[in-house]
Amino acid sequence: MEHGGKPFGGEESDKEDEEGDAAARQIGQAAEQGAGDKFGRPLDGAGKRLPDCLIIGARKGGTRALITFLAMHPKLVTTGDEVQFFNNNESYAKGMSWYIEQMPESRPDQVLIEKTAEYFHVLWVPERVKEMNPDIKILLVIRDPFIRMVSDYNFLRRFAASNIVDGYDFPELKYTIEELALDNATGNINKAYGGLHRSKYYKFFGNWLKHFPREQIHIINGDRLASENPSYELTKVEQFLGVDSYFNEDFFYKDEEKGFYCITDIGCLGKEKGHKQPDFNPEFVKKVRSFLRPMNLLFYNQAGYDFNWE
Asked: Which PANTHER family match (predicted)?
């Protein structure tokens, strides 16, 4: 299920992200009601077009938080649901005209951003994106690969409990993450586990670097985005996209009870955000982190930055 069909991480996966997400609902309310753009201004010269920028993943790395925050910027226009175009052969066969129709209206002076987290993980996506626009700007959100794996498992477990997908039986409903990530017979790493595979960032990033220069891809530290004031990472995104500075520390406050930052004028993201990680057997954590460590080093070299994961 890693690279075929309609991956789990698209429109369905966003349902739980959007449930109770007051921030995302309020940020686009004016546009949905036909009052103008997301700030109620007339859409002079606006229209539908191809995006200027893609948020490509990684899944459960912080992409929903990023696009929700970016939607507040007056010079940025963002999509709502994930479009799932370049990774989904059925959608891709509908052509660019269909893709454009999925975009919100934007003005020429605004940067249009589309987010589909699964783009990062699917082999054929970079080539298709390059065919559309070789100069497109790309945002990649990554976080500690062990924590991402656990978050991905928890998400799939919640998703599977309330959704039926024809032809696919979710192992997350039957097994613990320890049982999936380790071989039951030997106790060694189960290299076939999809959740672990998605945390091998160097494989996916290397595929993107075959088609796009490093300077065309900006990497957002999802751990910092979640644990520190988001304005620090958002300021770097503004510089990368070439838009005026808009975000500052006062846009956000830390909810001490929830343990993460919220939007000052709107509130916190949905109830599915900010899950506390469970306590694991230290030996399990050690095995997985030891397995991922050499791959993390390869990714550091590709990215040109040491993320200092354990």
From this structure: GH20068P, HEPARAN SULFATE SULFOTRANSFERASE
Length of the chain: 310
63 is in an annotated binding site: yes
Confirm whether residue 151 is marked as ligand binding.
yes
Q: Is 232 annotated as a binding residue?
A: no
Q: Choose among 83, 11, 18: nearest CA to 50.
A: 83
Is 60 known to be catalytic?
A: yes
64 labelled binding-site residue: yes
Mutual angle of helices 145-162 and 11-18, in 10-degree steps? 90
Q: Strands, DSSP E only, in 156-293?
A: 217-221, 252-255, 260-263
Mean pLDDT of 191-208: 97
CA 294 – CA 310 distance, rounded (Å) = 11
Q: Name the helix (H) or strand (E) containing 297.
A: helix 282-303
* Helix, strand, coil % in the chain, rounded to nearest 5: 45, 10, 45
On the question of a cis peptide bond just before residue 58, with omega within 30 degrees of 0, the verdict is: yes
Q: Which of 6, 15, 60, 203 is catalytic?
A: 60
**What domains, with CATH codes, occur in the chain?**
11-303 (3.40.50.300)
Residue 162: per-residue pLDDT: 77
Q: Is 234 helix (H, G, I), strand (E, B) or coil?
A: helix
